[in-house]
Known about the structure:
The complex is a heterodimer. Chain A is mainly alpha-helical. Chain A has four helices and no strands.
Amino acid sequence: MPLTPRTEQGKAFIRPCTIIYLLLMSLTLLTWALGRFNAQIGLPAMTLSMSVLGIAILKGHLIGDFFMGLRRVRGPWRWVVTLWLLLPASLITIAFMQAGQ
Amino acid sequence: MMEKRKQPPGDLAIWIFICAELSVFAAFFAAYAFTRAKHLELFNRYQQTLNTDYALINTLALITSSYFVVRAVAAIREGSQRSCARWLLAAIAMGALFLVVKSMEYQHHFSHGVTLSTNTFYMFYISLTFFHFMHVIMGMVILAAVALKAHAGGYTAERHAGVETGASYWHMVDLVWIILFPLVYVMR
């Protein structure tokens, strides 16, 4: 089953990178909305922070895999962006937990 | 079954450079977060002076520019040099939009007397975002050089490592902003 709908010639008329692009734009709007309207939503600060950080990690992983082309790479280079995302995200999480205590 | 390559797209040297750049930004992000933990009230108060609408426009601009760069790489892989150059010019235009919006944001703060020494929050905000701003400029210069060469027919469907190298650098600039945006503008 193909990932995207195809024309009669078998060419995808929506490229997978376009789907990823639209997903990235939607996740960005979600991040902005969570920050902008949190007074109305009423999420605790820590929940808000960890939610938008999680969204950022997902976005970064999508950029690494689909835009930088790392999903077509094997070996250690395959994980360079994911590992980089997890490093500052872990440190940021520890720092925010410290601040929340 | 998708055939996997051993090395990432583009010149391996750019990936060493990207790793070095990402390490510096990771240290910067950690320094921001741990300093914030010590000055929580100050960071939360002055973070509210930042314009998240400008940050949203800038994030959308960088993601769009990255998408245009992906299309440029796809175009050259299909052997279309002119199309590759056009997508790269569109990406540069999105980079320029980022610089204009960021400059407006800086102008607003500077006109209100904000400097690096105003307080610890602004010191981090200005230095972190300006460091990234300089990377955007450098990325635009690289993309412009690649676009000119593509327009002149310097790349083919078989030989286009230069396009992939420039693309990888530009995606790194986008990647850094993806963390910077929530960390500095949203997380509290």
